What we know:
Layout: H1 4-29, H2 33-55, H3 58-89, H4 95-101, E1 108-115, E2 121-127, E3 130-136, H5 139-154, E4 162-167, H6 179-185, H7 192-205, H8 208-211, E5 232-233
Parallel strand pairs: 3-4
Antiparallel strand pairs: 1-2, 1-5, 2-3
Helix pairs in contact: 1-3, 2-3
Protein name: Membrane protein
Keywords: Membrane, Transmembrane, Transmembrane helix
Region (Disordered): 210-234
Amino acid sequence: MARKEPAADAANAGRLKQIVLTYKMTRKADKMIGLVLAGVGLGTLAVFLVIGFLIGHPVYLGILGLLLAFLATAIVFGRRAERAAFGQMEGQPGAAAAVLDNIGRGWTTTPAVAMNRSQDVVHRAVGKAGIVLVAEGNPNRVKTLLAAEKKKMARIVADVPVHDVIVGTGEGQVGLKKLRTTMLKFPRVLTGPQVTTTNDRLRAMGDLMSNMPLPKGPMPRGMRMPKGGGGKAR
């Protein structure tokens, strides 16, 4: 048992450090975070203490209020931290790919399956809802990218539903913080084996990175070969 204590202490220290870093990051975008968390925690505790004194059990209700105050503070902190993170990512290149990479199990994501010279980009996610193409960039230009990608895929996955999403704040677009929710709302129409078959077909088709020609001549020192054309499974 004694050998496990240092590892547990290190894990707890790492967790605490992560919370502190998250708080600092959130505070840069949300100056009121400290006051809000203090208000939620103290307010919840105060309510339970008042109820406890009224019914003659201040100690029991105080302990319960303390636990619920901690829980409420953690929930509010998590939501405001998430909002701050999305606020900082909004409009940044590759932000949608980062959201897709953390969408959850059951999805296979492949970033940058299509791109143009203006850095407009299309990412692909495959799950039980079918294929979802997520575009970032100028709305008019990405429509051309989406149409070309759909045409290319139609030759090998014509029987799989394809959805497209344009990330942005304009009309008909989906905000970054709503991207995950939007994708999870698509109806599930494929079975697990069908998802696997679809991924295999798309992987055989390749993507932008795997189809990119390698430069001739010796490889520069320190440069690594890119990994295979498959996306990251979730």
